[in-house]
């Protein structure tokens, strides 16, 4: 259950001052990883709790006075004046004693002292990430409760309250990642295609690493955690490709860093504003040379190795293949393009776009096949 912040501290999001360190060999052998209802972590006490493997350590930061557990099995965070800043705000009744525990994977949990199974956690920090995504942590949405987990930047290097940047998994259409600055979209990863995200072609060719793309999509949740196993350890990484923000190219065009200019109209399209386009202002994008005849035009241009357009308004059908997908698009006067949903094992599923094709890019390797509807004479 989500913690609730009082109105007078509305700018604070839940945080603990997690710092990931390789603890020195002289770390005290009796370090503990739990906090009982009678214990408090304060700056003055200089006390912390340490995960069993001596990897993670948790304590109070200078911005907070104390972290403690009160008798109602809730964690509370107090400032220097003793004012409540944050609470787990749990309401369920717990008969057994409750302990707070820092697990070996970095998850800080509240649990019944008689059991530590994951489905018995009363609360866990992995449900509320801040700016760091650890292996086994998820980004996504619980479809039953609507709870969304995403990353958010710190306000400053010394202030862990929410900053301007957030990294989220969009679940409208096909899942894909979005990077926002406040409400402004800076970057999207391209849709998930069963192997990786179409706008991150390196995900399909990580030969140096053993890549485990744990993507979960069912009736209960849509979530992702990508773990890269390196011979010297495990890490989780996402990459924003260089020059990845190609939304400046505008509608019905695509970005190709191998061409000059980098913005190109799709074949059969021309710049909407020829003068502005020639001056490098490509924001208005492209338009068709001639309007489609709904009953006559059913021809498609194959664009290979593409970052697919956004799918938040696209039609997705997991049950059909590419041929039936093409047939549906041909018969739909509003269809502007189609592609496979999943590129594994020869491809499956169908995605149909019915509007402008935005934020596309062509790659040397990776990407995905996209079929764009064009007129007979184009």
How would you characterize the overall build of this protein?
- GO terms for molecular function: ATP binding; carbohydrate binding.
- One of its GO terms (biological process) is recognition of pollen.
- The chain has 3 domains: 126 residues, Agglutinin, subunit A; 114 residues, no CATH class; 128 residues, no CATH class.
- Helix content is 4%, strand content 37%.
- The chain contains 2 helices and 30 strands.
- The chain has an 8-stranded mixed sheet, with helices on one face. Strands 12, 13, 18, 19 and 20 form a 5-stranded antiparallel sheet that branches.
- β21 and β22 form a beta hairpin.
Percent of residues in helical segments?
A: under 10%
Record field, number of beta strands: 30
Instruction: Please work out how many helical segments DSSP would assign.
Output: 2
**What is the rounded Rg?**
25 Å
Q: Which regions have little confidence, pLDDT < 50, spanning 5+ residues?
A: 1-30, 206-212, 228-237
The end-to-end span amounts to: 56 Å
Number of domains: 3
Q: What is the arithmetic mean of pLDDT?
A: 78
> Which strands sit side by side, in order, in the main sheet?
22-21-29-25-30-27-28-26
Query: Beta-sheet strand percentage?
Result: 35-45%
Summing up helix and strand content along with how strands pair, one would put the structural category as mainly beta
Shape: elongated
Major β-sheet annotation: 8 strands, mixed
Domain Bulb-type lectin: 1-123
Domain Apple: 294-375
Pfam family, one: B_lectin
GO molecular function: ATP binding; carbohydrate binding
């Amino acid at each position: 259950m989500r913690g609730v912040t009082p109105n007078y501290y509305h700018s604070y999001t839940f945080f603990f001052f997690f710092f990931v360190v390789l603890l020195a060999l002289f770390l005290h052998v009796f370090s503990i990883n739990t906090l009982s209802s009678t214990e408090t972590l304060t700056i003055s006490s200089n006390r912390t709790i340490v995960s069993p493997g001596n990897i993670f350590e948790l304590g109070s930061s200078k911005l907070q006075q104390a972290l403690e557990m009160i008798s109602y099995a809730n964690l509370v965070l107090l400032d220097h004046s003793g004012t409540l800043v944050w609470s787990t705000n749990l309401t369920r009744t717990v008969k057994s004693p409750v302990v707070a525990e820092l697990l070996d994977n970095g998850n800080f949990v509240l649990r019944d002292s008689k059991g530590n199974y994951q489905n018995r956690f009363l609360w866990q920090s992995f449900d509320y990430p801040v700016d760091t995504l650890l292996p086994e942590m998820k980004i996504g949405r619980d479809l039953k409760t609507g709870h969304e987990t995403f990353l958010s930047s710190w306000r400053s290097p010394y202030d862990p309250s929410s900053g301007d940047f957030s990294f989220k998994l969009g679940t409208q259409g096909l899942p894909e990642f979005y990077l926002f600055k406040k409400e402004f979209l800076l970057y999207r990863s391209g849709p998930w295609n069963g192997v990786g995200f179409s706008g991150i072609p390196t995900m399909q060719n990580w030969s140096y690493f053993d890549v485990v793309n744990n993507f979960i999509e069912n009736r209960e949740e849509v979530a992702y955690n990508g773990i890269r196993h390196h011979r010297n350890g495990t890490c989780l990484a996402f990459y924003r490709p260089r020059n990845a923000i190609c939304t400046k190219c505008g509608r019905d065009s695509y970005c190709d860093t191998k061409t000059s200019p980098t913005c190109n109209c799709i074949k059969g399209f021309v710049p909407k504003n020829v003068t502005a386009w020639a001056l490098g202002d490509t924001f208005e994008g492209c338009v068709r040379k001639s309007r489609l005849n709904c009953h006559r035009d059913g021809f498609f241009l194959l664009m290979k190795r593409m970052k697919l357009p956004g799918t938040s308004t696209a039609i997705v059908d997991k049950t059909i293949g590419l041929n039936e997908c093409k047939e549906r698009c041909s018969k739909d006067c509003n269809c502007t393009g189609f592609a496979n949903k999943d590129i594994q094992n020869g491809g499956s599923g169908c995605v149909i776009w019915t509007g402008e094709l935005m934020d596309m890019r062509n790659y040397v390797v990776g990407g995905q096949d996209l079929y764009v509807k064009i007129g007979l004479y184009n």
